[in-house]
Amino acid sequence: MSQQQISLPAKLINGGIAGIVGVTCVFPIDLAKTRLQNQRSGQQVYKSMMDCLVKTIRSEGYFGMYRGAAVNLTLVTPEKAIKLAANDFFRHHLSKDGKGLTVFKEMLAGCGAGMCQVIITTPMEMLKIQLQDAGRLAAQQKKPVMMSPTKLVVSNTVLSRSYNSGPVVSAARAVSATQIAKELLQTQGIPGLYRGLGATLMRDVPFSVVYFPLFANLNRLGKPGPDQSSPFYWAFLSGCAAGSIAAVAVNPCDVVKTRMQSLNKGPGEESYNGLMDCMSKIMRKEGPTGFLKGAGCRALVIAPLFGIAQVMYFVGVGEYILDNFSPSFLSV
């Protein structure tokens, strides 16, 4: 499959299905990652990933682990589709006469893919983080949480229900990503949804630069012959290995992005005025280990997510769907 020309609709279907399946499987770990990354020294609510998940189930129920999953499941299809299709597009145009790409060109293709995906990733992460972190703030404070007036208008009823919540379960029912997005657009316009764009680029571009060349080379090791594709299990393992390594490598950038995109702050939690201000405050108050918060969770999220993505992509689920169930104009 990797040696054939794959149509753009098939690439989009492969990436979309892979994203939905992967996110459904690993979203609770992603929630734990967000909450662990947003904890400050001396204000820890959770001791570890397992402690976070156990406390979340006790206080918010089983579905509390999936707070923010709806927005992720909605937008992960275009996000993963853009990422995989863009990387394939850049690799195709950087190759010459069918020859293999150099490592530098593979990294360049990954860079292009990372820059393309942030169009979807930034607002998706922005909305998801608000919903994921609400439970941590409620557990930390056990009292109404007031939104900083410099961030959003406090008097608004929608955001008050979302962030100034008492019982966690009722807060989850009172607000949705759609309501938060609408309020951000009304108060800050489109830039409100793209808060943390620079930090997202700082995370996703290096991730893609590391991931795609690493996956391509690991996957190449499993090919039985020069003109044959690697078996699906090897594609899965290669995706898992490359994804976990790339995830840990850029985790400091992910911590910065999470902190900058969190609109609501607990007592004693500082706000940030840009990337450099955020990084300097984390280093000064939490030390180098502050940038490693949630690294294990992130590796556990990304590894199966991209392993599943590569299996879908290389097995050719999209091609099968187009060949058997789609109108003829989609398979052009």
TrEMBL record:
Function, as annotated: Mitochondrial glutamate/H(+) symporter. Responsible for the transport of glutamate from the cytosol into the mitochondrial matrix with the concomitant import of a proton. Plays a role in the control of glucose-stimulated insulin secretion.
CC terms in the record's Gene Ontology section: mitochondrial inner membrane
Record membrane topology: Multi-pass membrane protein
Keyword flag Protein transport: no
InterPro entries membership: MCP, MCP_dom_sf, MCP_transmembrane, Mito_Solute_Carrier
Keywords associated with the record: Membrane, Mitochondrion, Mitochondrion inner membrane, Repeat, Transmembrane, Transmembrane helix, Transport
Transmembrane stretches, start-end: 12-32, 232-250, 299-322
One Pfam family linked to the record: Mito_carr
Descriptive protein name: Mitochondrial glutamate carrier 1
Coiled coil regions in record: none
Compartment(s) of residence: Mitochondrion inner membrane
KW Translocase (keyword) present: no
Entry similarity comment: Belongs to the mitochondrial carrier (TC 2.A.29) family.
Organism in which the protein naturally occurs: Crenichthys baileyi (White River springfish)
Record field: catalytic activity: L-glutamate(in) + H(+)(in) = L-glutamate(out) + H(+)(out)
Solcar repeats: 6-93, 101-221, 230-319
GO BP terms: malate-aspartate shuttle
Gene3D superfamilies per the UniProt record, alphabetical: Mitochondrial carrier domain
Organism domain of life: Eukaryota
GO molecular function: L-aspartate transmembrane transporter activity; L-glutamate transmembrane transporter activity
